Fold this sequence. Notes:
The protein has 3 domains: 94 residues, Rossmann fold (3-Layer(aba) Sandwich), CATH 3.40.50; 75 residues, Dna Ligase, domain 1; 219 residues, 2-Layer Sandwich (D-amino Acid Aminotransferase, Chain A, domain 1). The protein is built from 13 helices and 20 strands. The strands form 4 sheets. Strands 9, 10, 11, 12, 13, 14, 16, 17 and 20 form a 9-stranded antiparallel sheet that branches. InterPro entries: ATP-dep_AA_Ligase, ATP-grasp, ATP_grasp_subdomain_1, LAL_C2.
Amino acid sequence: MNRERSLLLVGATDETVAKAKRLGLHVLLLQHPTKINAEQERLADHVEIVDYTRWDLVEPLAERLWDSPGFAAATSITEPGLENAARINDLFALGGTGYAVTRRFRDKAVMRAHLAGLDPDAVRAQPLRGREDLDAFGKRHGYPFIVKPTDATASIGVHRLDGPADADRVWAEVRRLSGTRTDRVSTLMLLQDFLMEEYVDGPEYSVESFSSGGRHVVIAVTEKFTDPAHFAELGHAVPARLGAAVDEQVRTSVIGFLDRLGVKDGVCHTEIRIGAHGPRVIESHNRIAGDAITDLVHSVYGIDTVTLALAAPFGLAERLPDRPKAHGGAAVRSVVGRPGDVVDAVDGVAEAQALADVLAVRISARPGETVRPLRDNWDRLGLVAVTGEDTTAAIRRGAELVGAVVKVRLTGADGRPGLATAAPVSDRTVIPA
């Protein structure tokens, strides 16, 4: 095994391992016991089954693999693996993103504290330690404001306080969630600390970027549709329908943010809102986007951010143009149902996947399950990702597909049959200069 072409991969999907192999890399995979499968064992050159979120377990294992068979780079593009991949970079001076920078992305309180000293326009924020902090923050910064976990994903545990009357309810939810696992599938992430931060009113977007040697390229600006109550993600669309001046403001804002956080290399997924005072960063992650956004970006821009993330440490990543050009549009529409309905059957997935304009169909709903109230991304029934002539056409096509081809059949409490639908999204128009 060639050490200089060997990658230590901390957590991965089947797709990630397969793409690393297609790059000609030798893959040493650290995989969680709940995530390993036969395909990954077949694809990877070496597999260690370990809770890769625990540094006390990962460190001795990394040291043994460093000695033999050896590796030239360590990375992760999955949220729970980021910090320990960064620690490995530091331990062996591999030159990749280190722990200090990764922690700024992973811990929202650390990010806010870091930015407060560098950016006068940064969102105001404060750690939530006790019930009285909610009242104090509201008095100091006004309402509404947001409470959320410092290191969770998928809109889990996010609450909006519109006034002092909401404080008891939100504090009760914080206490209920603290110490619980965020992911109802794999339980890899633990909710512990919470943050209060200023609410930025305005439409939400995500920005997919790639950095190399400190040069940041904004690949795509993605429209993001969220539930107004709990901020669960209802859809995404590429390219965002922005006027040229606002698009430039977004790009400049995100590039400045990445510089301030100190990232030099790799992919990032940054979430922003465009408020009355322009674009402001809500949070960011030094990994690829979820929710099939990578499929949208690949379809519209011809750029595979997964492959970029894997190739970059070995000097195999393509040099991107300063402003990649979009070709057509693409969209994700989330599949939702009425809370309390029971899932009877799921039909049409294979038929949809065979259509030329369909990028992905991911249905998590299973027969016998009860539809939950929409609080976070895990409460959705699935998603579909499609292409279109432009952004608007793709958004409409995704909605047509749900119910017409992809059919999640439901039974209501009254016994009446029904179908899941595409989550409604706002009829957003182009934001001009």
